[in-house]
């Protein structure tokens, strides 16, 4: 390709395929079903579904034992001393703000959990280690990684099991949108609703502590623990004392609500954010201690807690006096009538309609979901990009395995370069620069070399530590001298995307100036392998992995990327509705 004049347009743009603005099911990733959830204990895997009958039998046995214990004097004395009631005064009623907040929270939580399950399905394995080496997970709902399909070097024809291959299909009534590898859309829904949930929570906290309602939830004596145990025993004995939530919660309710509101909810936010590269890499030791996989696992446990809380909470609402309880939360009255029940069931019917329509709507209007998400939380992601990720690791932290991802280049041009050991490779740097240039691989290796040991954060959820070496992008900028009009660096790849056409991605200039942004040609002290992006790949440590373009072919500096491809800032942004700014 001839050298382009300064300010000229890169003809590689013509090789980028336009994307649909809706999900074309026939062209989407084909369905691939996993297995029932399994947990690993030692070296053996156990089907989690067995916990349902085991739990039911355990509950019956526990109830039987509790009923027999009721005849023991010591148990009677314990219950008499700690009857299970929360201590403190009576605070009548549930104000309108509390009732509205409760209903809004129900709708948000339903779809936050649903989209979270969809996100988990893109890498359906959980670990307690940072490395994500196949076989080290403690939880999965996917088959074991096929043996012999994970590694291989020296040829472009070997079979790989990539992270994208590992994604599974889940039912559309459970996930949203319920398609395999639809994590881009699920993340927009999840994060947008998360933000609304946080705002709703802040409003709740403010109103809770500016009224007397906080005294319902906050224990003021250590006696709450024996009283809660007493109440749990009485529930198991099938003989709970009469309670009246209109005035106060019993000790078990108070403790459960306190944990939910003041521990589980903030923890969900914290461990969610600790999965983000720009955030975890900012906190040094804390980011290493609470690494991404620990954060994912704890985040999952919190999901299970919320599901359990909701099931028990709703069950007790119906069991302990449905009409009165629903009047409390629907109408704010203590009457025993059907009015609150009717309103509550209308709200539940609306939730059911939204639940059923969520996946079809998302599949039909994915670009709208993407744009709405960008409007709601895109600016937050943009702000997080300006954090300064500094965290690096030592060589003992290097992962034994780094999941492969992406399609390997198959063009005749790339095959010829690879067969020649990339000696004919030229990195073309054009666009809005004063000195457009071409660099051979030998020239790049002769430039200042930077080494860094960092964590790779894939959007799908896996991670791994590797040692990267290459030329800092800052040095490339010094050589080509981008003009003041250059706002983005567009990286073109030899690779094709899943829907055909050249893979590409755009980065803000600020990312290119960061001290940990390099063009890597080595990984773990060796020449970069084909599967991980040879001969050259981008490392931009405050962004998710799909933006670390592999098999880099050219770099174009532009003032606007809206004219490139479908105008969303990258191939996955165009075709799979990802976000252009991805530090979270």
Describe, in plain words, how this protein is organized in 3D:
The chain is an alpha+beta fold and 584 residues long. The chain has 2 domains: 11-30 and 392-575, Sulfite Oxidase, Chain A, domain 2, CATH 3.90.420.10; 38-385, no CATH class. The protein contains 19 helices and 14 strands. A 5-stranded mixed β-sheet has the order 6-5-14-9-10. Strands 7, 8, 11, 12 and 13 form a 5-stranded antiparallel β-sheet that branches. It has a 4-stranded antiparallel β-sheet with strand order 2-1-4-3. The two termini are 37 Å apart. The model is unreliable at 151-158 (pLDDT under 50).
β-strand percent reads: 5-15%
The mean pLDDT is 91
> What gap, in angstroms, lies between the N and C termini?
37 Å
For the largest beta-sheet, the strand count, sense and barrel status come to: 5 strands, mixed
Query: Low-confidence spans: pLDDT under 50, at least 5 residues?
Result: 151-158
- Radius of gyration (Å): 28 Å
Shape: elongated
Provide a quick synopsis of the model.
The chain has 19 helices and 14 strands.
């Amino acid at each position: 390709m001839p050298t382009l004049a300064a300010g000229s347009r890169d003809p590689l743009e013509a090789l980028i395929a336009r994307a649909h603005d809706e999900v074309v099911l026939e062209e989407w990733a084909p369905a691939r079903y996993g297995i029932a959830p399994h947990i690993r204990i030692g070296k053996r895997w156990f089907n989690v579904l067995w916990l349902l009958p085991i739990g039911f039998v355990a509950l019956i046995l526990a109830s039987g034992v509790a009923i027999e214990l009721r005849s023991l004097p010591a148990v009677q004395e314990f219950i008499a001393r700690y009857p299970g009631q929360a201590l403190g005064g009576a605070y009548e009623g549930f104000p309108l703000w509390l009732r509205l907040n409760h209903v809004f929270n129900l709708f948000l939580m339903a779809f936050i959990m649903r989209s979270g399950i969809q996100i988990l399905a893109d890498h359906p394995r959980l670990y307690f280690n940072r490395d994500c080496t196949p076989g080290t997970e403690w939880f999965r709902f996917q088959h074991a990684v096929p043996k012999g399909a994970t590694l291989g070097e020296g040829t472009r024809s070997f079979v790989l099991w990539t992270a994208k291959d590992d994604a599974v299909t889940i039912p559309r009534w459970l996930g949203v949108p319920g398609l395999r590898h639809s994590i881009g859309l699920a993340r927009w829904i999840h994060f947008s609703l998360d933000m609304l949930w946080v705002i709703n929570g802040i409003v709740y906290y403010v109103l809770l502590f500016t009224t007397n309602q906080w005294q319902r939830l906050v224990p003021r004596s250590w006696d709450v623990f024996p009283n809660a145990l007493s109440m749990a025993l009485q529930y198991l004995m099938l003989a709970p004392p009469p309670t009246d939530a209109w005035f106060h919660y019993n000790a078990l309710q108070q403790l459960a609500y306190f944990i939910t509101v003041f521990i589980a909810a903030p923890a969900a936010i914290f461990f969610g954010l600790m999965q983000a590269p720009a955030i975890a890499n900012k906190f040094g030791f804390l980011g290493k201690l609470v690494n991404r996989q620990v954060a994912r696992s704890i985040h999952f446990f919190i999901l299970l807690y919320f599901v359990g809380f909701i099931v028990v909470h709703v069950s007790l609402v119906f069991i302990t006096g449905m009409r009165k309880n629903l009047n409390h939360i629907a109408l704010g009255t203590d009457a025993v009538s059907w009015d609150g029940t009717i309103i509550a069931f209308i709200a539940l019917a609306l939730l059911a309609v939204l639940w059923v329509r969520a996946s079809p709507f998302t599949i039909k209007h994915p670009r709208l979901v993407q744009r709405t998400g960008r409007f709601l939380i895109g600016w937050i992601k943009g702000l997080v990009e300006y954090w300064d990720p500094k965290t690096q690791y030592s060589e003992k932290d290097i992962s034994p395995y780094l999941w492969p991802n992406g399609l390997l280049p198959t063009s005749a041009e790339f095959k010829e370069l690879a067969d020649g050991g990339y000696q004919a490779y030229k990195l073309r740097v054009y666009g809005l620069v004063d000195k457009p240039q071409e660099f051979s691989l030998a020239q790049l290796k002769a430039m200042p070399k930077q080494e860094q040991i960092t964590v790779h954060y894939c959007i799908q959820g896996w991670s791994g530590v590797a040692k990267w070496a290459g030329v800092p992008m800052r040095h490339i900028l010094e050589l080509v001298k981008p003009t003041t009009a250059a706002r983005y660096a567009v990286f073109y790849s030899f690779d094709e995307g899943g829907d055909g056409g050249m893979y590409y991605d755009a980065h803000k200039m600020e990312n290119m100036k960061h001290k940990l942004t390099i063009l890597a040609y080595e990984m773990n002290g060796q020449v970069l392998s084909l599967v991980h992006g040879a001969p050259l790949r981008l490392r931009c440590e405050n962004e998710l992995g799909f933006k670390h373009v592999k098999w880099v072919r050219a770099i174009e500096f532009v003032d606007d990327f809206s004219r490139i491809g479908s105008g969303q800032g990258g191939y996955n942004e165009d075709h799979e509705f990802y976000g252009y700014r991805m530090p979270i």
